[in-house]
Amino acid sequence: VPGPTSLDMARGFRSIRADPLSFLSAVSELYGDLVSFPVPGAPALLLNDPEAVRHVLQTSARGWGKDTVQYAALARVTGPGLLASAEPSWIDHRRLAAPAFHHQPLEAVGEQVRAAARSAVGVRLPVAVGAGGGTGVVDVAALTHTIGLDAVGRALFSADLSGQAQTLLDATSDAAELVVRLGRAILPRAHWTPTRLNVRLRSARRRLDTASAEIIAQRRARNGRASTAPHGDDLLGLLLDSGLTDAEVRDELVTMIVAGHETVAASLAWTFMLLAEHPEVQDRTRAELAAHPGPVSLVATREALPWTRAVIDEALRLFPPAWALSRRSLRDDVVAGHDVPAGTLAIISPWLVHRRPDPWTAPLAFRPERFLDPGAGRTAYLPFGQGPRLCIGREFALGEMVMVLDEVLREHRLDVPEGWSRPEPQARVAVHPRGGMPLLVTRLDRA
Ligand code: HEM
Known about the structure:
The protein has 17 helices and 12 strands. The protein is of the alpha+beta class. The protein has one domain: CATH 1.10.630.10. Protoporphyrin IX containing FE is lined by residues 82-83, 94, 152, 156, 255-256, 259-260, 263-264, 267, 321-322, 325, 383-385, 389, 391-393, 396-397.
């Protein structure tokens, strides 16, 4: 399998660390759909062919585990929560958490998500745009982070996280940065040495631990003396009633906080950017949302709002927050016609797969209409992963994005500010706009 040599890697080391997305794009352009990396120990392959990707994530998923440097780094923050854990504990925890993400419970928490969006929009946008007569430049990435965290708290834990919001946002942001630095290391690093990285990581984890312990304690206190009474059917209630230890509940809470808000926040920031750059798409989205009878539900949004959902699908194609997934083969296998020994590392980048000219003609263009045909390009589309480890929060995230667009676009127009240049994509745990997403926001009632 072709790929860069050790010398190439050593030469490009700094740029790989600084900008892994450009590095991955460059090697796949140079070497094709299957690229081999010269790392010590087991072989490492970048898979960019949709069939090979499906083989690893779906068809042969049982033969590929999550014992990778990337997930080991994440587990330093989340513990063995749902995202980072491996069989056999994973399947038990997935079964426990899944009912909270079924259609009916999601329908029931829709109003909580809307309230999270409404309160952040109400607090942040008028403050920012008020003084200038209804127009101002706002960092919409900060807005979407606030909404993302608040929505997870209200809808999945029935908790008001406003008291802990800044701690949680700072700690997840620190953890995200450090996890990526650790994940980029080729060899696992020692946990116990007092390096600056380890000290900062421990501090981020401690802050997340404390906040999660408070959330759990508040819920227990709310249940009062009847400690055996059920805690309710939101996610936190299911976890507390399941017999998991407090440490296990904590791991799942931190996992949901990290996986559930960074990703949605980044996706929304990129979606707002694309809408600001394409006023005609923005107008059509606003018109569809305005024509929707009654409040938008958190579920079944594709049927109710096909254009808005196509906009979101296309934004997730161009800016998939989960830019790299990794797996390690548990046994010998054959991938794309090549024998692959047990222990092989597979790196799969939705960022690259979504930019393939086949099936995505003009892959860099923002064309929501591609997704009006429900089958289009689906073989090469995986913003939420594929197979048994598919994102558990997929429907929640998509519904939340629709609701936030509804709340923002109803009363505001988004434009790019003068002298606009797109923020660079920065690959952290999710792909974020480096330096935020400053957009020109105009209150429509004052425009
Ligand atoms: C898994 C993406 C929102 C919780 C995943 C995976 C991807 C992903 C790609 C699979 C990882 C792999 O196979 O290695 C996204 C994107 C989101 C989003 C793009 C938003 C736009 C959420 C939300 C939650 C969540 C809102 C929870 C509230 C999880 C969990 C897993 C997961 C717990 C692990 C599932 C398992 O392995 O059983 N997500 N996610 N995600 N996601 Fe999401």
